[in-house]
Amino acid sequence: MKKIPQRTCVICHLKFDKRDLFRIVSDKSGEIFFDPTGKANGRGAYVCKSEACVDQFLNKNYLERAFKRKVESDVVETVRQQLSEKKQMK
């Protein structure tokens, strides 16, 4: 039986299977985006699918904390839109 990787939500600090979390990535060029595959190159921040955690992640500068740099508001809105599209697809 294959072991399923575990990751921790950056908001609630609970462990989940990797595939049960949203992954936000900062790649080498500095672009920040939602990674639906979970395999994109770059530093990843994981957030669980609970609406409270997603809202807090996007509204309280957790993107900046996770990637240790300034994140423009249009980037936050793009990530918010990508996550909401993914939620609607469930």
Descriptive tags:
90 residues, Hypothetical Cytosolic Protein, Chain: A, two-stranded antiparallel sheet, 5 strands, globular
Name given to the CATH homologous superfamily: YlxR-like
Percent helix, as a range, is 25-40%
> What structural class results from the helix and strand content?
alpha+beta
The count of helical stretches stands at 3
The end-to-end span amounts to 27 Å
- Give the strand content: 15-25%
**Which strands sit side by side, in order, in the main sheet?**
4-3-5
Description:
This protein is α+β, with helices and mostly antiparallel strands. The protein has one domain (6-80): Hypothetical Cytosolic Protein, Chain: A (2-Layer Sandwich). Helices cover 36% and strands 23% of the residues. It has three helices and five strands; from the N terminus they run βββββααα. The chain has helices at residues 51-59, 62-67, 73-89; strands spanning 6-8, 15-17, 21-26, 32-34, 43-48. A three-stranded antiparallel beta sheet has the order 4-3-5. Strands 1-2 form a two-stranded antiparallel ribbon. A hairpin with a 6-residue loop joins β1 (6-8) and β2 (15-17). The model has no long low-confidence stretch (mean pLDDT 91).
Structure, briefly:
With 90 residues, the chain is of the alpha+beta class. The protein has 3 helices and 5 strands, in the order E-E-E-E-E-H-H-H.
